[in-house]
Amino acid sequence: MSLRLSLFAGLRPFKPGEAARDVMAGVTLASMNIPQVLGYTRIAGMPVVTGLYTVLLPLVAFAIFGSSRHLVVAADSATAAIFSSSISHMAAPASAKYMALVEMVALLTAGLLLLARIFKLGFLADFLSRTVLTGFITGVGIQVGIAMLGDMLGIATASHATLLQLQEVLRGLPLFNLPAAALSALIVGAILIGRHFDKRLPVSLVAVVATIAASAAFHFAEHGIATIGPVPGGLPTIQWPDVSWSETLAVLPVAASCFVMIIAQSAATSRIYAVRYREGLDENADILGLAAANAAAAISGAFVVNGSPTQTAMADSAGTRSQVAQLVFAGVVLLVLLALTGPLQYLPRCALAGIVFTIAIGMIKLDALRDILKESPGEFSLAVFTAAAVVVIGVEQGILLAIVLSLLRHVRHSYRPHTMILTPDASGEWRQTAATPGAETEPGLIVYRFGADLFYANDNRFAEEVRALVRRAPTPVRWFIVDAGAITDLDYSAARSIRDLLDDLSRQGVNVIFARVNPYLRSDMDRHGITAAIGAARIFKTLHEALAAVRFGAAAYTNGTPPD
Fold first, then answer.
1. For the sheet containing 445-450, what is the strand order?
2. From residue 195, how far is each of 28, 152, 311, 415, 432 by CA, in Å?
3. Is the pLDDT of residue 194 over 80?
C-alpha cells in the first residue's frame, strides 16, 4: 500500500534534440486536437470553454505524475457520454448545478484512481474484455452520432434518450434548417475526406477557423444558423465543487463507471505505445497521473479526462515521443484562453456538431467487429449486444453491462472448460481426444485432463464427467489418472465433491491418481483432506511418474516412489 513517486517520468531521459522535435509536434497536436476538445463539450453538456480547460492543468498534472511518454490525457467521448447521460437527469446541461455535479464526478473519479494506485487495483481493467469494450465504444459512437443530428439539421431535441432523440429528429425533418444542414454536410465531408488521405491534416481546425470567419462576416446568427455565443477567456477559476453530501453519493456510481473506462482504455493505450517503442512502463505511476489529472480537472472547472486512444494516436502521428509535446499543447491552449476566445462566439453550433459527428463515426469499430465475427462468432454476439444496450438502455448502464458480460464470459469458460482423454497413437505419441463417454486411454486405464481450476461452479461437471467415463468405458476401469496440469487451486465445494467422487470410485474398485500436481494445488489438496483420502503416494508431479506407477502396479506405491 506504499505510494512511491517518480516525477516527470514521461519526460525522461530528456534529450534537447528530441525535445525540439516534440515542441513542433506539440503545436501540430494542438492544431488537430483543439477542435476535438471543443466538440467533446457537446457530448458532455458543458460550456465550450471547459473543453480547453481539459487540456490545460490536466495535461500538466499527468506530465508530472504519469509514466507514459505517449499517453494524451484529455477530454474523451466515452467518459463524457457516461456522465452526461446520467447527470443530465439531475440538472440542466451547462447550468451551474450541472457543472458542479460534473466537477464532483471528476473529483470522485480522481479519488477512485488514487485508491486503485494505493491498493494496486489496476488489474481491474483486465476484467473488461476487448470484445465488449469494442461493442461499448461502438454503441457510444452510435449514441453520440444520433445526439448530434439535431444540431446538424437545425432541429430542436429535448430528450436525453437516444431512441427518443432519433424519433424527434425524424419528426422534425420537414422543418429542418437547410443552411445548417448544408454547412454540417460540408464539414463532415471535408473532415472524412481529409482523414482518408492523411490523418495528420488539421481539417477540423481549418473548418473551425473558416466557419468562424464566415459567421462573423456574413452574420450567420441573423440567418437562422445558431452560434455558440460568447466564450469567457482567461485562466480557469480554481474552486471546490459546490455539491451536497447526498448529491455526492448520487453521482458516485457515475464516477465508478468513468473509473472503469479510464483504467481500461488508458492501460491498453499505454501498453501499445510502450511496446511499440520498447520503453519501460509503470502502470501504477500512470494511474497516479490520471488521478492527478482528474483532480486538476475537477478544481479548474473542467470535466473527467481520460487517456484517449484517439488523441494519443493523433499525437503519435504528429511525431510526439515524450510528454514535452503535451506540455507544449497545454501552452498553446493557454495562449488561446488568454487571447483568442473572442472569435469562438461566432462558431456555428452545426459546425461543432459536425466535428463531433465525425468523431462518433470514428468510434464505430466496424473493422474490429468484422474481425471478431470472423474469428469468434460467439464473442461477436456479445459485442453487438453491448453496443445495442448502450444505445437502448444508456451509457452508464452499458459500461456496467459490459463488465458483467466480460466476467460472465470468463466464468462460462471456467464453468465449461475443455476436457480431454489422452490416448497413444500408432507411433506411441500422446494425442488428445474429446472426453466423451466410451473413450479410454487403453483397456483398464483412463487419463483425463480437466482444462480449468476446480471451484464451486464446475466441480459437479468434473465429478459427473468422471463418473460417466468410468461407467461407460469399454472395459472395466482399474486406473483413473487425473492430469491436473491446468488446475492451480480448488475451493471448499470442489474439495467436497472430489472426496465424494473418490469414495464412489473406490467402491467400484477404481484407483485414482493425480498427475502434474503443482505446489499450489498440492497445498489445497493437503488442506482439504484430499491427500489423506487418496494417499500421498498417488500424487505425482509429472504424468510420466503416474504412468510408470500404473505400469508396475500397486506395489509401486509401497514407498511412494515408482520404479525407474
1. 430-434, 419-424, 445-450, 479-483, 511-515
2. 15, 20, 14, 45, 50
3. yes
Q: How confident is the model at residue 124 (pLDDT cuts 50, 70, 90)?
A: low
Roughly what angle, to the nearest 10 degrees, separates helices 162-172 and 130-153? 30
Rounded to whole angstroms, how far apart are CA atoms 334 and 60?
12
C-alpha span between 373 and 185 (Å, rounded): 32
pLDDT tens profile 408-460: 877 777 788 889 998 877 776 778 888 999 999 999 999 999 999 999 989 99
The DSSP output letter for 119 is T
8 Å CB contact between 454 and 517: no
Whether residue 3 has pLDDT greater than 80? no
d(CA 269, CA 122): 14
435, 430, 511, 434: which is closest to 466 by C-alpha?
Answer: 435
- C-alpha closest to that of 494 among 451, 464, 455: 455
In this predicted structure, the answer to whether residue 58 has a pLDDT above a threshold of 80 is yes
User: CA angle at residue 328 from 326 to 330, to 5 degrees?
Assistant: 70
- Among positive and negative, which fits the CA dihedral 147, 149, 151, 154? negative
Pairing of strands 479-483, 445-450: parallel
Task: Report helix, strand or coil for 447.
Answer: strand
Q: Do 483 and 517 touch, CB atoms closer than 8 A?
A: no
Residue ranges per structural domain of the chain: 16-410, 416-557
Distances (CA, A) of 434 to 311, 348, 419, 424: 47, 64, 7, 14
Q: What is d(CA 477, CA 469) in angstroms, rounded to the nearest whole number?
A: 9
Q: At what angle do helices 283-299 and 57-65 cross, to 10 degrees?
A: 150
Helical segments of 340-475, H only? 349-363, 366-375, 377-392, 395-415, 459-471
Q: Is 348 helix (H, G, I), strand (E, B) or coil?
A: strand
CB count within 10 Å of CB 21 equals 16
Please report the pLDDT score of residue 564 as a whole number: 40
What is the helix (H) or strand (E) element at residue 450, kind and residue range? strand 445-450
Fold of the 416-557 domain: Transcription Regulator spoIIAA (3.30.750)
